[in-house]
């Protein structure tokens, strides 16, 4: 069941992010709007679009969340493997995504403080990114 849901959720989420999905949704709204005079803008006519959009939105929340959870889990596994494979990396960072937001913020603050205590080229948070960002921007 989980494999089927994962496959279905992945396909629907991928389709929902394509221009064709937007065009189809836009076409649905245009068709609904054009049919307004035919149905004299009745309560039923309004209920159709309200119900359809509510159902689609409700289901898409779960499908997109499932895709994001899988993507985030895969990313964490890849990062954990990099930490494990690099000799100078600290293995204690593996699994920190399970900590509270406060604990993670404390770790970030400690890392930034540690960077500020490094030689001039690594001063503070800005010192860790400045050259890299400048090089990246120079490419474009």
TrEMBL record:
InterPro entries: Iron_permease_Fet4. The chain crosses the membrane at residues 20-39, 45-64. Keywords: Membrane, Transmembrane, Transmembrane helix. One of its GO terms (biological process) is transmembrane transport. It comes from the Bacteria. This is Low affinity iron permease family protein. It comes from Sphingomonas panacis.
């Amino acid at each position: 069941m989980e494999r089927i849901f994962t496959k279905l959720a992945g396909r629907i989420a991928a389709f929902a992010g394509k221009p064709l999905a937007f065009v189809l949704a836009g076409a649905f709204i245009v068709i609904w709007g054009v049919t307004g005079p035919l149905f004299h803008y009745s309560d039923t006519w309004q209920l159709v679009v309200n119900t359809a959009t509510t159902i689609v939105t409700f289901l898409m929340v779960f499908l997109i969340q499932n895709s994001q959870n899988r993507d985030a889990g895969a990313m964490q596994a890849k990062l954990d493997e990099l930490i494990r494979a690099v000799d100078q990396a600290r293995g204690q960072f593996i699994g920190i995504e399970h900590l509270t937001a406060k604990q993670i913020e404390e770790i970030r603050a400690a890392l930034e403080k540690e960077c500020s205590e490094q030689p001039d080229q690594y001063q503070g948070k800005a010192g860790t990114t400045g050259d890299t960002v400048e090089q990246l921007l120079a490419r474009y």
